[in-house]
Structures
1.
Amino acid sequence: MQIGTALGILAASVVSVSCVLGVETVKETRELNVATASGAALKVRTSNGGIAVVHGDSSEMRIKATLTAKSKERLEAIRIVATNDPATGNDVRVEFPEPVKGEQEGCSLVIEVPKATNVNLAATNGNIALSGTAGTAKLESSNGGVEIKGHDGSADIATSNGPVTASAVSGPIKIATSNAPVTLDQVGAPFRVSTSNGPVEVRLSDAFAGVISLSTSNGKISFPAVAKVESQSGNKGYGNADAKIAIRSGGDASTVRTSNAPISVKAGG
């Protein structure tokens, strides 16, 4: 049974018209509020726009949607559907009118919600930002960057052509992107990073322990003096470079893979 449902506009700004590359578009901002509970799951879907989720102290999920369409009629036909179900949690999705929208039509979302537990965000051609959440975090985009910080749990991140930054994520981290850098900070759990044509920088927390396998091409690998080197090859700044290092004892294995870029692992502190 749904305890809150919002469909369409609760409050809307003045519609504006702009012209980009000879194509006229219409924009509008809508704000929606849905009753919810702290710790509920959150699932969000949109296209041609980003998603930002931040922690809020209210008992409501507050959504600010910025929509773009090719005409006022199509703009009015776009629906922001937001529900809260006690069994499945919060669900937010953007429904576009037929026929399939073009690149000039999309929706970006900023969502303020009491601390969400288990978050699933998916966007296309837009950035994703997440903070103050817990549980599992599955973040997926294309042609956009991803930033997650202050998350008490695991993170599974997939994007393309966009940088990824993860800071203060307490659980295991899995990252797959391309043509972009990856930055991890305050890492205390195992991680798997895969990118291309972008540098990778990892700063470990004082609690991290485990073996890290590092591999790149046409880039150097650097790691802290406290690391025990189990194997190493290449590392001349050109050609392939590989290293396997251990930080303290115990812990699960971690990996970093990139190409045409360096890898840097730094100790905590």
2.
Amino acid sequence: MTHNKTLNPLTDEKLKAAFGAMAHPRDFRPFVPKEKAPASLNTSRRDRTDEVMETALIRETHDLWGALMAEPYKGITTDGTLCPPGRVLQPNGAPRAAMEEAAKALLAVLRPEIAAKIRFAADAPEWRRWHNMPVQWHRDGFGLEEMNEAERAATHALLAASLSRAGYAHLLELMEINRFSGALIGREKYLNENCYQIGLFGEPGERIWGFQIYGHHLCLACRLIGDTYVLSPTFLAAEPSVVDEGRFAGTDAFVENEDAALALLRGLDPELRRKAVTLNSILSADVPEGRRHWADSLHLGGAFQDNRVIPLEGVSASHFRPEDKKRLMALFETFFLLLPEGPKASRLAEIEAHLDETWLTWMGGYDDWAPFYFRLHSPVVLAEFDHHQAVFLTNAEPARFHIHTLTRIPEGGDYGMDLLSAI
């Protein structure tokens, strides 16, 4: 694991103040609450949602996100003007037969009252309803924790059929981390391996259909458009990213993303690195007012940001040396572990074809301890990585054991929207 490597000592006074109690950068143990949550907080997501909806912040967020979802879909742009890169509908090795078989098996075991809550038309606006919060708003439909054993097993079979073997294993890791997090703080009914919603869009076997799963630290939109497989947006996260006890002990999520990112930035020519780093620290006192969002932190492409304007910042990869571009592609690959072999190869080829149009933005340090955020942005991909402050633990500063990652297809490509006109 990364935290077993030889580390340079903490020397920066701000970092020592924030992380001096830690044995390594992913040591979350000093920030586990000394007392577990009272029983009044260890309620189901649906019950807890009814409670928090009484608070102004959650009510305002619910209403704002609802308004954003109601806007006509356009796509993420760099200046408000849609500039589609001309993506074409073509076979990319989609595991269509296996996905259709698994989806039909799920429909066969769903109780009618549940099917009525999770089935939508292929083009339903609910594609855009996903979010990362553990709450379960009424518009969120039905949760896996409310399913019976057969329904949950069939849901997992659909996920396994739709993802790579390593990708499905990663999803199980993140679900287990969610259960581990709930156990750490005494809120197992609220945070567990089943606190996600599933949605089925269209009829399996038709030209256009797909599914969506979302909840705390896991959001995926998977769509088949003809023989083209699209997985976007994706949101994968963990707090803490390390599991140090139980049957999943040894889990160290997102370490590949972090290592590849540091290798890229550290390997750049100093002048290029200077251009890439737009903010030297993401500790609380060093982030400009308004830049950090209470739910998304430094992410710009989070939930309900389908139409956000995100300018290009940092440094263009057109200036990278061949070895830098090789490291950049290695970093991109860490974001697409979930994709089956064919769609993954196709996606990476598409990204590489636009590599000279890719921009790297970095905020924070790049030593062994400093938390950081980075964004990779081109006409065909938006990838973000962010170290977060505590939500359920107690660290006041962003730390390397709380990680959020996100991928999107800008310029109208999320949910495969730009490909639908070719059907």
3.
Amino acid sequence: MAAKKAGNKKAASKKTAGKKTAGKKRATGKKPVSGSPKRVSFNNISAASWEHATDRAALHALRTLPGFDTVIRKVVGAIGERNVRLIFTAQALEVGPDQYPDLHEILKEVSATLDWPVPKLYVSQTPLANAGAVGVDNPFIVLNSSLVELSSPDELRFVLGHEVAHIISEHALYRTLLFLLLQFSRAAVPLVGQAVAPITLALLEWNRKAEVSCDRAGLLAVQDVDTAVGALGVMAGGVRGREGSINVEALRTQSEAYSDSEGLDTFFKFMATAGRTHPFPVIRVRELDRWAVGGEYARILGGEFVARGDEPPLRDDMSAAGDGFSDSAQEVFTNADEYVSNALSAFAGALRRLARD
């Protein structure tokens, strides 16, 4: 895909070393491995090292669909890639050595840690504490001003590591498609909007899994579990003037209480997340802690991770993802050729008509 080719120009010039085995470390006890006096860099690390199984399986189903890249370009082309960029950056400042140089330095450090070319970064004046990575050939990151105000430099390191991971995993391409579906499907011809609804819901489910994947990469960027959890706390309920006051252990307790609920509570939790692009922060905290104590985080810190070009194979069906998706999303991803091409092509046509009008 174009996004992959563009991002891999520099990565391809690096030595491919296969899976590294400089040493093994395992998390022990009940608390995650936390803290590192000197951050480790991961030369030639593949996104497969941190990707959630459902994330990888869903994207594999789409990437192997003949002509899907062409269909996405039809959709983006109906708006124009330049216009997509302008939607996100027209009211934003581009970060660089002379504009918010501290943020630029953090981004450079994070990109070096994850061994990836430094992407463009923008800061947008936005009250919601969030960030995002979008784009097609040259994905970029938008950091909301509220998140900058509420976060410490290390918490921003986690956030930027998370967003760089979206680019490495090629999530930005699909997130751009999801953005266009969410923004414009209602304005399209009603029948077209109905046709893309299953795709939109399936992509929303995938995006929530992708967030879990990239939280892991954010942890690899900052290499301190409590800092990563604190950054998620900021996005959940950070308050200006009370920066640094979030109790991460209390947040963990809240996360466990939410995750352990059963019965009717489970139904309401599902309904509450069905239309969301992101999982609730308390769920992300629990998932990140589980990954940190599971041993994989410690192994990667010890130098044992999947290198680019050495990714394990994935089957064409969703069996690798287990029951991580709803039945409707499973149907879309396992029968992608029946759902995607015609519906998205019709959506692209509707967008063109809207643009002309």
4.
Amino acid sequence: MFGLVNVPVKLYSATENHDVSMHQVHEKDGGRIRNQHRCQECGKVVEFDDMVKAYDDGDNRVILTKDDFEALPADENDDLDVLQFVPNDQIDPIMLEKSYFLEPTSKTPKAYLLLRQTLEDTDRTAIVKITLRTRTRLAILRVCGKVLMIQTLRWADEIRDVDFKGVNSQAKISKKEMEMSAKLVESYSEDFTPEEFNDDYQDELRKLIDAKIDKGETLDLEKAFPDEDEDEEPGGDVIDLMEALRKSVDTSRSSKKGSSRSGSKKSSSKSGAKSTSGKSSSSKSGAKKKTG
């Protein structure tokens, strides 16, 4: 996971959708409505296996086949590679995407607990590289209560640049207006407790469904649609933790010394930085992950 210290873990999605699941039916008889993919050129219904992706730039259309995608570089590595440690307050929430809990899987979770405690004590967040569904993603590794958590990140070029005219206005705000605004904020100020808030729409929707069931406003699926099929939806242990930590620190120091000595050698600086950065394939270390 970090340096030469290996922290075996399992990956679990940290969130779930609480929305009531529904589908479209014919109001007249309650029959399921099935979506068909029809080609606008030939008018025929296209099966899923015959579909491919395409990119349009406005003038040209590039068709990409399954073979094209298979030829792209895909990382099958299960390791979570720590790239750097940064202060907690440097992570802008706008970059955060999906969250995952990490469960320790080794016979002794000492390395897991050490990493968790180290992140807590140093107020640091780890920037890591993770592979999900063959795609390499950038993510953060942080402490969440008693567990470690992975949160995938958007890439920097996915955050839009905006320049709204209104935010550059020179409108004057009086001292009295600022005082009243501050008082208003203070009157609403309290600690955030997520459990106090409910999704009223979903609550009322469930009540409506239950009321219809109680009134007998339902269809017996087995009797009404006897032939309808069910929906189809296409780490090893650390033997000597102290020794691994000691070697990791020595490797990091050697890397920094080597990069500073080679700073004046422009012709070899790039290759030297790669070999000493700790991110090459020969020195790569990581935490084995499994999705669960």
